[in-house]
């Protein structure tokens, strides 16, 4: 995938990387976002969770997965028996991309060029952390980590081993669970997500 091609031989600490990233102009998304949202979590994390991009709440707070999708993620991780505190949490794209609708800022999906530009940072994070498992939450993360040819609906629950870099477990994005309508469908979608997350313990335990 595009994340794993850069040379990070001299990669410094996560704090130094985050500091360096805060001024990033590798693509244009820095222009409208409040700030860059870097990953966070312990230096010795064995598991790295990768989302799509910060949302409205993350853009304001400056931290990944602290909004509604983050709450669902936390609940499902707990249900799967995974402690979020052993995970490093980050995003494929580190600036919030949105379209303005009155006072509301509506999430807008990052394009392939933006994902590729930002993959430099994701690769740098993985080079420092060297996790035993990376979890791709949704299609954007799967593209960043594994490139084209991964369909989340077909690939979910499976672990892929890229030519270089750690194995990648593919699953859905938790925000999907916020969009499903109907009690039975929400419960089924949520159970399936928790089931995918249970693989984390097997591969990183
Ligand atoms: N959705 C994401 O993909 N990442 C976040 O940090 C928050 C919501």
UniProtKB/TrEMBL annotation:
<keyword id="KW-0479">Metal-binding</keyword>
<keyword id="KW-0411">Iron-sulfur</keyword>
<keyword id="KW-0378">Hydrolase</keyword>
<feature type="domain" description="Uracil-DNA glycosylase-like">
    <location>
        <begin position="38"/>
        <end position="198"/>
    </location>
</feature>
<keyword id="KW-0408">Iron</keyword>
<keyword id="KW-0004">4Fe-4S</keyword>
<comment type="similarity">
    <text>Belongs to the uracil-DNA glycosylase (UDG) superfamily. Type 4 (UDGa) family.</text>
</comment>
<protein>
    <recommendedName>
        <fullName>Type-4 uracil-DNA glycosylase</fullName>
    </recommendedName>
</protein>
<dbReference type="InterPro" id="IPR005273">
    <property type="entry name" value="Ura-DNA_glyco_family4"/>
</dbReference>
<dbReference type="InterPro" id="IPR051536">
    <property type="entry name" value="UDG_Type-4/5"/>
</dbReference>
<keyword id="KW-0234">DNA repair</keyword>
<dbReference type="InterPro" id="IPR005122">
    <property type="entry name" value="Uracil-DNA_glycosylase-like"/>
</dbReference>
<dbReference type="Pfam" id="PF03167">
    <property type="entry name" value="UDG"/>
</dbReference>
<keyword id="KW-0227">DNA damage</keyword>
<dbReference type="InterPro" id="IPR036895">
    <property type="entry name" value="Uracil-DNA_glycosylase-like_sf"/>
</dbReference>
